[in-house]
Recover the amino acids of this structure.
RNA sequence: GCGAGUAUGGUGAAGGGGUUAACACGGCGGAUUGUGGUUCCGUUAUGCUAGGGUUCGAAUCCCUAUACUCGCCCCA
């Protein structure tokens, strides 16, 4: 049997309904925020990610899906969303003719060749946002407010917003040195991974799961201690604006983010629910003032975030949040036999064109099974079509809730269902619908 | 890349060397030849991830492979 590729999943049934619901919710939310929908290619030139995400991160050094196309071009399935948006911003010269800042949102699949585990897939969907062309700390706060408001709308409770600041380049370098200085005497005591991180990415030592309960971790220098005056002021402003939007947060010095391009504000929202699994970061993001330059664009500050769809759905499941999904069918048609199918299809098609959710049995099942099926599909009405109905054009329509049965003229069917399902016509007096004739 | 666990119908699973692979759910049919979600009856895996080995005999023990799950690294 051919199986799906490792780390991927099929969407169908309930899960599909949930995803479609969330997608609509995101669309509406982004409309409220006045963000612009972006869709960039699912693959890009490999170099883009090396320049954008950074050569030192594992994401680019060993987790990308690379391929050479027939024209010998090196391409990579995108491992994250920001690089593509920034490339598009530069390539389409949005810094010039658009009203800056550009506020972009996107939703789509990303690919990383990793070992799958709970909350981690090789193909995973991210919703994200990028604001390009403003240095204002209010933009940082706005970006943070997006997932927070989304979770609020959905009713998620067990979430924790962690924020931190890496400061500008000067502050960040200063901190990096301070950290190395601090951990140097303890180098022999650190775990193997941390010793590797010491050279490669010392900031990550802080959230090491093996070592972080050691005494000397408590007094390790914090990013905030190394911020210069300007960076500190920036961070204070972000916090001020968050407070203005009633957003609860904690300043967590161990939030450093993995990608190279971050500066100033960084944040993560985690699901602080017992037993959620090791991958409990629901979303993360931050400011990246140097990224556009790194990809050969004009100096343009940016801030953004991305959230993992799969983890969001897991969180909803954990908190037992039911999404308001309309799971009903307006009408189920039960033809008594094959000979009634032709006639039934005509009716079915008319109902669908009138905007009803309607379905039919194709398998010539007996009446009993058809009622069972109608129940399974949560159908509000069942229409039985047999010889008599076909002959007289008077249909047997049963209300599945009240069990009341009606004889309805074929010509009145749409009106009848509309009356019973939508409470009738809500148009004005001039209209020519059945009710107003 | 490293480590641990698991693998039996459509689903949840029992069986830990002895021949009909339990039980439950679901599906289909019937009791009622045009009225359902209850009840009752019937039916639903010639087969236990794949390949090899041990044995008179393997779903059961051993080996290999594969897949899945969870964790590490890294990250959403």
């Amino acid at each position: 049997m051919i199986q799906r590729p490792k780390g991927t999943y099929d969407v169908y049934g309930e899960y599909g309904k949930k995803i479609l619901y969330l997608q609509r919710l995101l669309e509406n939310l982004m409309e409220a925020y006045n963000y612009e929908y972006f869709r960039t290619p699912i693959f890009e030139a490999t170099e883009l990610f090396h320049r954008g995400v950074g050569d030192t991160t594992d994401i680019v050094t060993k987790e990308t899906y690379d391929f050479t196309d027939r024209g010998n071009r090196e391409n990579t399935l995108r491992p994250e969303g920001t690089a593509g948006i920034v490339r598009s911003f530069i390539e389409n010269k949005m810094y010039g003719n658009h009203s800056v800042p550009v506020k972009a949102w996107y939703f789509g699949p990303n690919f990383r060749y990793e070992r799958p585990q709970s909350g981690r897939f090789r193909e995973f969907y991210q919703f994200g946002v990028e604001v390009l062309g403003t240095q204002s700390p209010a933009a940082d706060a706005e970006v943070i407010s997006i997932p927070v408001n989304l979770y609020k709308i959905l009713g998620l409770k067990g979430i924790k917003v962690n924020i931190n600041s890496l400061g500008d380049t000067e502050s960040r370098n200063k901190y990096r040195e301070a950290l190395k200085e601090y951990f140097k005497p303890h180098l022999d005591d650190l775990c193997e991974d941390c010793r590797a991180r010491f050279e490669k990415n010392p900031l990550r030592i802080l959230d090491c799961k093996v070592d972080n309960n050691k005494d000397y971790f408590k007094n390790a220098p914090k990013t905030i201690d190394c911020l210069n005056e300007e960076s500190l002021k920036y961070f204070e402003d972000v916090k001020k604006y968050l407070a203005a939007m009633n957003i609860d947060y904690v300043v967590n010095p161990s939030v450093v983010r993995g990608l190279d391009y971050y500066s100033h504000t960084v944040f993560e929202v985690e699901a602080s629910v017992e037993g959620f699994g090791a991958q409990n970061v629901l979303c993360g993001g931050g400011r990246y003032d140097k990224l556009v330059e790194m990809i050969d664009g004009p100096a343009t500050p940016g801030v953004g975030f991305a959230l993992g769809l799969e983890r969001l759905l897991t969180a909803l499941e954990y908190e037992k949040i039911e999404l308001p999904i309309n799971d009903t069918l307006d009408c189920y048609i039960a033809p008594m036999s094959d000979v009634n199918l032709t006639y039934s299809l005509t009716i079915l098609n008319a109902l669908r064109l009138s905007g009803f959710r309607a379905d039919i049995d194709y398998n010539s099942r007996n009446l009993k099974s058809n009622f069972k099926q109608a129940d399974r599909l949560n159908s509000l009405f069942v229409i039985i079509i047999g010889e008599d109905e076909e002959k007289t054009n008077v249909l047997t329509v049963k209300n599945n809730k009240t069990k009341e049965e009606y004889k309805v003229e074929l010509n009145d069917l749409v009106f009848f269902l509309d009356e019973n399902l939508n409470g009738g016509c809500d148009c004005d007096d001039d209209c020519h619908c059945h009710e107003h004739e």
User: Anything to note?
Assistant: The first strand of chain A starts at residue 36 and ends at 37. Chain A has a mean pLDDT of 88. The two ends of chain A are 61 Å apart (CA to CA). The longest helix of chain A spans residues 13-33.
